[in-house]
């Protein structure tokens, strides 16, 4: 039986196969690497959850065309029971990662009562041909050129994924500069599906590597290390944040060699 807010997904025929969906492409100025779940821009990289990358890749395959919510759910969550809020959260996280504005979009546009479409230019990235293999120790054997290392190299370096984040269960949720909302609303960064949580329950303001937690007038309150938040509260690494039934752990990481900007008193 399917409840009102859940949809049983079915396999949707796609114009492109899974292999094609794994091909790197450019979305506007962003480089998208689906096989690594990675977005890159100006030397900085952002890791996405696999399902969120699948949503982006599916939309990019149909750039300029409106894709319905049902078609997206069918394609990405095939043969699973999923709430529509899962797609809303994926779209919200994509917009946050791309620094896109839902009200003035440059990448993803919401078409009311119809679905979503990619409005930025999409261009396939041609992969550099792999150098001819030379047996080890043979004359002419050489190391791969920079940028063409073998797959034994890690997909991304630790520096690329460091930064302020929240850990919730087995998830790591990266925080963006500016406002990061926690609540029950489908379009917030950290969605907690409990009636004990307000739609916009709390927020973390991130500036220059400093994170400040604020309760947004929630009914049941926000707690840090057991203390109710009644005024803006500076967070430190390892702080436990309780919002309704959820416990979030604040992670404060800085790449080695970086200098943090001091807050002015």
How is this structure best summarized?
This protein has 265 residues and is an alpha+beta fold.
What can you tell me about this protein's structure?
It is a single chain. The protein has 265 residues and is an alpha+beta fold. The chain contains five helices and 20 strands. The strands form five sheets. The protein has a six-stranded antiparallel β-sheet, with no helix packed on it. A five-stranded antiparallel β-sheet has the order 5-4-3-2-9, with helices on one face. A five-stranded mixed β-sheet has the order 13-12-14-15-18, with no helix packed on it. A hairpin with a 2-residue loop joins strand 14 (202-207) and strand 15. The radius of gyration is 21 Å and the shape is globular.
């Amino acid at each position: 039986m399917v409840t009102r807010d859940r949809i049983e997904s079915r396999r949707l025929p796609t114009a492109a196969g899974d292999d094609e969906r794994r091909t790197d492409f450019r979305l506007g100025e962003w480089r998208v690497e689906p096989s690594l779940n990675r977005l890159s821009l100006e030397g900085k990289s952002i890791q996405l959850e696999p399902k969120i990358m699948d949503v982006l890749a599916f939309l990019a395959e149909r750039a300029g065309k409106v894709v319905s919510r049902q078609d997206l759910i069918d394609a990405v969550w095939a043969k699973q029971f999923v709430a529509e809020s899962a797609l809303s959260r994926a779209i919200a996280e994509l917009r946050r990662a791309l620094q896109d504005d839902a009200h003035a979009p440059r990448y993803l546009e919401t078409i009311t009562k119809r679905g979503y479409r990619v409005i930025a230019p999409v261009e396939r990235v041609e992969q550099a041909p792999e150098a001819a293999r030379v047996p080890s120790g043979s004359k002419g054997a050489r190391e791969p050129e920079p940028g063409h290392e073998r797959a034994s190299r890690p997909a991304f370096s630790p520096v690329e994924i460091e930064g302020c984040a929240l850990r919730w269960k087995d998830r790591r949720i990266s925080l963006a500069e500016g406002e990061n909302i926690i609540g029950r609303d489908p379009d917030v960064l950290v969605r907690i599906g409990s009636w004990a949580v307000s739609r916009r329950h709390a927020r973390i303001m991130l500036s220059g590597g400093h994170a400040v937690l604020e309760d947004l007038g929630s009914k049941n309150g926000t707690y840090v290390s057991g203390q109710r938040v009644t005024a803006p509260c500076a967070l430190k690494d390892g702080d436990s944040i309780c919002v309704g039934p959820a416990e979030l752990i604040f992670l404060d990481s800085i790449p080695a060699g970086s200098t943090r900007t001091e807050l002015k008193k």
